[in-house]
C-alpha cells in the first residue's frame, strides 16, 4: 500500500496555483509514492470570482477525477465561513 495525502487543493480553490490541475497533482503524487489523494477544495469562497455554487464545482472535480488514470482521488471540501457574503455557519464546524 502506498502513502496518502488528504489535504490537497486543486486550481478550483482560490488559494492554489493555476498549475494545480489533477494531472499535475497525480504526476507529483506518483513521483512521491502517494497513491491516494484527498482533495480539500474551498467550494464557496473565491475572492477572484465571487461566490459560486458548491455543487457545480464538485461536479467539475468529480468528472475530472474519474478521467484521471493511475490515481485514486477522494473528493472533499474545506468548510468556509463568510457571514458578510451570507455564508454563515461554518464557524461551528
Give the CA-based shape.
elongated
Radius of gyration from CA coordinates: 14 Å
Number of helices: 2
Helix % is 10-25%
Given as residue ranges, the uncertain stretches (5+ residues, pLDDT < 50) are none
End-to-end Cα distance, whole Å, is 32 Å
SS content category: alpha/beta
SS strand fraction: 15-25%
Mean pLDDT: 76
User: How many strand segments?
Assistant: 3
H/E element string? EHEHE
What is the topology, as strand order, of the major beta sheet?
Answer: 1-2-3
Main sheet attributes: strand count, strand direction, barrel closure? 3 strands, parallel
Any descriptors?
single chain, 93 residues, alpha/beta, three-stranded parallel sheet
Amino acid at each position: 500500500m502506498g502513502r496518502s495525502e488528504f489535504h490537497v487543493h486543486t486550481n478550483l480553490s482560490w488559494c492554489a496555483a493555476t498549475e494545480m490541475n489533477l494531472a499535475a497533482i497525480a504526476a507529483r503524487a506518483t513521483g512521491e509514492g502517494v497513491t491516494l489523494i484527498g482533495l480539500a477544495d474551498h467550494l464557496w469562497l473565491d475572492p477572484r470570482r465571487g461566490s459560486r455554487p458548491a455543487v457545480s464545482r464538485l461536479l467539475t472535480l468529480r468528472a475530472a477525477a474519474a478521467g484521471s488514470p493511475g490515481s485514486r482521488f477522494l473528493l472533499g471540501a474545506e468548510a468556509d465561513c463568510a457571514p458578510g457574503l451570507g455564508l454563515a455557519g461554518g464557524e461551528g464546524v
